[in-house]
């Protein structure tokens, strides 16, 4: 909890942490209205999967140019401009008049999210280097906290009864807080380093971790995109509980990330990856029971299991010798977000042809693959 105390002790740390929260508040608010958008536009699950693919594609295509943008603007300015663009982009998917405008809106939303994501992770990496204080995992905890806030907003659906109005209120409130705190990071620039030619050889030790990141971020995206529909169509949950799976997932992920640094120091990175994967596997098993209570509990356990993996990957990527932090973070982000890129299409077609339950069965199988990979890493370390 030391890193959490650090964030609340100074606006220098709280300001970038709030950007993490903001991104998921906007994204999570969109996510809880996915069933409404699907129904309004009268599209199939496969069509929805393709639309979500456009969102992921927008995230993914920004990665090759993100480090150039960040280094040219300065990481602080790039983070702030990303906040502005992402807050605007969050409004459009909920007012899309047809399927094609929805795809274009989600692409724009994804691209602005991707730029902000890389910029804010690079910003935290640079502050950690300057101050010799680690708070990356806690900052990702704030990202998860944003999901909690968005999930709590789902209980307002019956009263607001207007997805666009809901998003406008959220965007304004979150943006005003960012506007107040932006001065604490706006002028920060990445420290100059002696760069080596960019090569995948520099990242060879991270390739197995890249597989884990692919699955962890892909699974997180799947729960964001499909948990509401799963509870509605498979578990037959009432409307007021449709957002509860995402809420439970976000709460447990938030707690796991706030506690993750201390646990990692005690048992080591590889063991915490294996432990987290085992917890996620149990979570998926409970989701597949199709019981409302056990499914929501399963989403919570899955969030807890995957909570600490991604922050550690970003920290490693931002501290590779001979590679500037923005480039390293972009590489790790690209590996992880490839799960977001491929996942929506694959899972959408599985859901359309075999049902949502088979979609989560596939996610269970992939989690088992991660456990095998983590054991391979453990053997390599001991040999």
Task: Describe what you observe in this structure.
The structure is a single chain. Helices cover 80% and strands 0% of the residues. By secondary structure, the chain is an all-alpha fold.
Cα distance, first to last residue?
33 Å
Which residue ranges are poorly predicted, with pLDDT under 50 across at least 5 consecutive positions? Answer: none
* Count of alpha and pi helical runs: 17
Order of helices and strands: HHHHHHHHHHHHHHHHH
Share in helix: over 70%
Shape: globular
| Number of E-type strands | 0
In terms of quaternary structure, what is this? single chain
Biggest beta sheet summary: none
Helix/strand-derived category reads: mainly alpha
Rg calculated over all Cα atoms: 19 Å
Please report which band the strand proportion falls in: under 5%, 5-15%, 15-25%, 25-35%, 35-45% or over 45%.
under 5%
Q: What's the overall average pLDDT, rounded?
A: 84
Topology:
Elements: H1 2-9, H2 11-32, H3 34-41, H4 45-61, H5 63-73, H6 75-89, H7 99-131, H8 136-153, H9 157-160, H10 163-181, H11 207-233, H12 244-267, H13 269-287, H14 292-306, H15 309-317, H16 325-354, H17 356-382
Helix pairs in contact: 1-2, 2-6, 2-7, 2-8, 2-10, 4-7, 4-16, 5-6, 5-7, 5-16, 6-7, 6-10, 7-16, 8-12, 8-15, 11-12, 11-14, 11-16, 11-17, 12-13, 12-14, 13-14, 13-17, 15-16, 16-17
